[in-house]
Amino acid sequence: MSRDMSENTEKNWRRVLADHPIEYPVRRRKARAVKVGEVIVGGGFPVSVQSMTNTDTRDIEATAAQIKRLEEAGCEIIRVAVLNSDAAACLGAIKKRIEIPLVADIHFSHTLALKAIEQGVDKVRINPGNIGADWKVAEVVAAAKDAGIPIRIGVNSGSLPEDILEEFGHDDPRAFVGAALRELEILEKHNFHDTIIALKSTNVMCTIAAYTLLAELVDYPFHIGITEAGTTFTGSIKSAAGIGAILARGIGDTLRVSLTADPVEEIRVGKQILAALELKREGVEVISCPTCGRCQIDLIGLAERIEAKTRHIKKPLRVAVMGCTVNGPGEAKAADVGIAGGKGEGLLFFKGEIIRKVKEADLEMVLLEEIEKLSRE
User: Fold this and answer.
1) Which of 74, 42, 99 is nearest to 272 (CA)?
2) Fewer CB within 10 A of the terminal residue: the chain, N end or C end?
C-alpha cells in the first residue's frame, strides 16, 4: 500500500522499517546431502562450481591438461562426455591425473554407464528413462550403489518426452518438472536416492519457475544452470540472471555456467555469481566506478589490469579502483584496499580511510603491492 508523502516523517518510516526485518542473506533450501568424490552437494554445504571439458575424452593428455587448467581456475567438479566404449576406457587414466571429482556424461547406453563406473568415476549423468529396459536401469543402479556414487538426472530443453511436450508445451516449467519426476520415480522404484537433479532450459524465466516448483516437491539437491546460454558476453548475462535469481530464492547446490567459450570462463563467471550473492568469497573482487566526466585517468584499463594480475590470489579481498578523489574513498568504504585517481596523482586508501597520495604513474604498482601484502596476511 502506498503512503502519502506527508506520513513519511522520520518517526513513521523508522517504525515501518523496524516492523519489516530483512532476512539477509537468503536462507538456503535444505536439500539432502549427496557426496561426489570429496565434494558434498546439498545438505547446506557451499554451492560448488563445475564445468565440462570440450576435448576428445579419448585424448587422455589433452583432457587431463584442460581439467588441470580448470582446477587452477577454481573448478570443483568436472564432467566429460562419454561417446563410446573407447572414451569410457580412458576415464580411469584421466581420473588418476586430476584432483577434482570426475563425472561421466552418458546418453542412452547402460553399458557405457557400467563401464564408466568400473573406471572409478565419482558420478554418472544419465537419464534412466532413455537407457532401455528396466533390467538395464537395475544394473546401473546396482553398480552405482556398490561404488557409492550418485546419479544425476539431467532434464533440458532437448530431452523433454513427446507426451509431456504435447501436454504442456516446450517452454512450460511443468514440462521440465514432470520429466524430472518421471526419471526420479524410476530410480526410487529401485530404492536409489543418491540423486542430483538438473532442470535446464535456454529460457531463463522457465528455468527459474521450474526449479522453484520442483523445490516444493522434493528434497534432492539441485544442479542449476541455463542451458545453451550462448557466447561469453550474452551467455554470462543470461546465466547471471537465471542462476542468480534461483540462488536468491535459496535454491541450488551446485552450478554450471554453460558458455560457448573456453570452459575456464564458465568457472570465472560462476564464481563471480556466487561472490555477488555473498554465497562464497574467494579471490580478489575488483569494484570500480562506471567513470564520469570527473575521471582523469585511464580507469577502464587500470581496473582490467588489476583484475587480470590478481587472478592467482585465493584469499578473499575486495579491491576498489575508483576514478576520482571526490567520491572514491567514500563510495568504496567496504573495500579492503583501493585507489582513487586524480590529475597527476591519486589516493591510496584502506577501508575508506585515506593513507597517502601516490603519483598517477605509480598507482597500479602501489595498489598491486598492497594487494600482495594483504594476500599474505
Assistant:
1) 74
2) N
pTM: 0.89
Residue 161: count other Cβ atoms within 10 Å of its Cβ: 17
* One domain, residues 175 and 297: no
Average pLDDT over residues 149-178: 91
Which of 224, 242, 276 finishes a domain?
Answer: 276
Q: What is the CATH classification number for the domain harbouring 153?
A: 3.20.20.20
Question: What are 253-294's pLDDT values in tens digits?
Answer: 999 999 999 999 999 999 999 999 989 888 899 988 888 877
The total number of structural domains in the chain stands at 2
β-bridge partners, 223 = 198, 254
Q: Is residue 339 part of a domain?
A: yes
Q: Which residue has cell 570426475?
A: 102
Last residue of a domain, one of 212, 244, 276: 276
The secondary structure element, H or E, covering residue 199 is strand 195-200
In whole angstroms, give the CA distance from residue 273 to residue 236. Answer: 10
Q: Is 9 exposed, middle or buried (0-12, 13-18, 19+ CB in 10 A)?
A: exposed
Residues 35, 140: Cα–Cα separation, whole Å: 18
